[in-house]
Amino acid sequence: MHALPHDHTGARIKRRRLERHLTQRALSDLSQVPYSTLTKTEQGVLPASPHVIASIARALRVEVATLTGQPYVTELRADELDILIQPIREALDVYDLGADPDVTPRPQQLLHDDAEALLVAVRAGEIKQAASQLPGLVQEATTAAHLTSSTEGWLLLASTYRTAYDVASKLGFPDLATIALSRMEWAANRGSDAVVGGMYRYMRALTYLRAGQYRTGDRLIHMGLDILEQAEPGRERDVLTGQLHLGAAVMAGRAQDGARADGHLNEAERIARGTGDASDVHWLSFGPTNVAVHRVSVLAELDEYGAAAEVGRTLALPREWPASRKSHHFAELARAQMWTGALDDAFSNLLRARKAAPQQARYHQTVRETYSGLEAAKRQLPDSFLSYGSWLGA
Q1: How many Å apart are CA 339 and CA 330, to the nearest integer?
Q2: Do 60 and 16 contact (CB within 8 A), yes or no?
Q3: Treating both helix axes as pointing N-terminal to C-terminal, what angle do 235-254 and 214-228 enclose, rounded to 10 degrees?
Q4: Is 353 a member of any domain?
Q5: What span, in angstroms and rounded, lies between the C-alpha atoms of 304 and 296?
Q6: CB of 231 closer than 8 Å to CB of 281
């Protein structure tokens, strides 16, 4: 459930710590989070970084979402997004029931076009549009796949499950995202496609990244790379391989392993020089720009906020780059700038994150934690800062 009004991650950490009858010193020792960081986080003086949240969640044996307050139910209800979640759950539940006699699927090409349109909508930040259209398409694609038992049909179904994962992740429903991923694997196996199998491992690894289980996530990355070796050589395989290295770089950065993170980034950069911009290959946004954006993220994960802010400040995003990726980058850059004390710049990038993809930014944990950090700094910010907080529900 959503937290109490004026609540923040630090306050949730404190409540859970007290429920476990732990002192701050004891939790610091268990989580390996510095004592001063823990105390200031609980007080709301410091925002909680993803690494700190994950470390404390593991120590308290709770899910990360328990500490972040996701899903943000009040805002979901206000945006009328809460009513779209159950239909997605129901559509995912009928995966193994065979063809539905009450569903007459349209021709394969029309289903394919609609599935691609939903992938594009998510990357444009149109989460509500994708969520509202997804259940019907999943059910139609499920029946079509069972009727034809063709490779194309199973891979189309896997694509709709991938969109379900995207929507669930962005709205803060990790359990639903996990179910969607398991369905994606089920359909991909029937389609016998190594590239989709590698992509599934990449997305599954991201769920472990968010949960702070870096070792498991890293194992999945390497499994995905092994699976991709079975795919036909070419640009498609190269793009997926590069994207897996980017995921591995963030994983290593959050695990505070700078050397390994840099190695993965360099390999992704080498691959990107060969592929060029490949934003449309499975809509992963891979290419030189995405490598540069991930370098900013990795530097921030390594607590090298000054370097992250400097690299991010000089990075120009292509006009045609997906809005969801732009919004995510602006949020990461705002976080780095906040830690360096550039509060006005940080808030400017929060505004840019909202402008690029408002539906995504409203439910983005980094946006909320950064806003909380700016609020705690007690520095004079424009009146629009308070209206931004009202928009977030903070």
Answers
A1: 14
A2: yes
A3: 170
A4: yes
A5: 9
A6: no
Would you give the distance in Å from CA 27 to the centre of its chain? 27
Interhelix angle 50-60/35-43, nearest 10 degrees: 100
Query: What's the pLDDT score for residue 394?
Result: 67
> What pLDDT, on the 0 to 100 scale, is given for residue 379?
66
Question: Do the domain assignments include residue 305?
Answer: no
Looking up tokens 């897996």 gives 244
- Give the amino acid at 68: T
pTM for this model (two decimals): 0.89
Examine the pLDDT at 118 and tell me if it is beyond 90: yes
Looking up residue 54, the CATH number of its domain turns out to be 1.10.260.40
Q: Which residue has the tokens 């950065």?
A: 253
Amino acid in the structure at residue 141:
A
Distance CA 394, CA 389 (A): 5
Structure token pair of residue 93: 């539940």
What CA–CA distance (Å, rounded) separates 385 from 307?
Answer: 26
Residue 78 resides in a domain: no
Give the model confidence (pLDDT) of 347-373 as tens digits: 999 999 999 999 999 999 999 999 988
Cβ atoms of 311 and 295 closer than 8 Å = yes
Decide: residue 93, CB within 10 A, 0-12 exposed, 13-18 middle, 19+ buried. exposed
Give tens-digit pLDDT for 226-248. Answer: 999 999 999 999 999 999 999 99
Contact residues for 174 (Cβ-Cβ < 8 A; gap 6+): 63, 64, 65, 70, 168, 207, 210, 211
Residue pair 204/181 in contact by the 8 Å Cβ criterion: yes
Tokens coding 287:
């290419």
Domain end among 11, 39, 69: 69
Amino acid letter for position 37: T
Question: Which residue range(s) make up the domain with 353?
Answer: 322-394
Domain boundary, last residue among 69, 96, 113: 69
Q: Percentage of the chain surpassing pLDDT 70?
A: 97
> What is the tally of structural domains in the chain?
2
